[in-house]
Amino acid sequence: MLHNEAKEATGDLTIRMIAMPSNTNAAGDVFGGWVMSQMDLAASTAAFGIANVKCATVAIDKVSFLAPMIVGDELSVYTKIAKVGRTSITVDVEAWRRLRHTPETQMVTRGRFVFVALDENNRPTPVVQNEDADA
């Protein structure tokens, strides 16, 4: 286990992929924006699972970049529903890396993503929780 305050991920594994050379910044590390985009995709999947309608990101809060990723690291994104409001869903997200060819893991980024449920005209609509949702 690499150094980090969290020992294991919390929430549901929602997305997993390998960081590729096209995902790097000028310094050669995996671009933080790429990690955030994967987190947003995972959070939107979790929000849709609750609302069962289109959900749009309206805020990203408390994002912390804790450690760099390198090409070849496996990124695993975990989501946990934090709050369901009248038209909004708040999702806590953790992004963890596993060094390629090792069992070692480390949280690299965490944040809170807020979505609004939208109707067919892209207007906020009340969240009617999916009966199959675990929230």
Strand content: 35-45%
Q: How much helical structure, as a percent, in the residues?
A: 10-25%
Compute the CA-based radius of gyration: 16 Å
Secondary structure category: mainly beta
**What's the number of helices?**
1
- Average pLDDT number: 91
Strands in their spatial order, largest beta sheet? 1-3-4-5-2
Number-wise, the strands total 5
Categorize the overall geometry. Answer: elongated
Order of helix and strand elements from N to C terminus? EHEEEE
Unreliable stretches covering 5 or more consecutive residues: none
Q: Biggest sheet, in brief? A: 5 strands, antiparallel
Question: What keyword list fits this structure?
Answer:
five-stranded antiparallel sheet; 5 strands; mainly beta; 15% helix
In short:
The protein is mainly β. It has one helix at 32-51, and strands at residues 12-18, 55-65, 74-84, 88-98, 105-117.
Task: Please give a structural write-up.
This protein has 135 residues and is mainly β. The chain contains one helix and five strands; from the N terminus they run βαββββ. The chain has a five-stranded antiparallel sheet, covered by helices on one side. The longest helix is centred in the first third of the chain and has 20 residues, at 32-51. The protein is elongated and about 45 Å long.
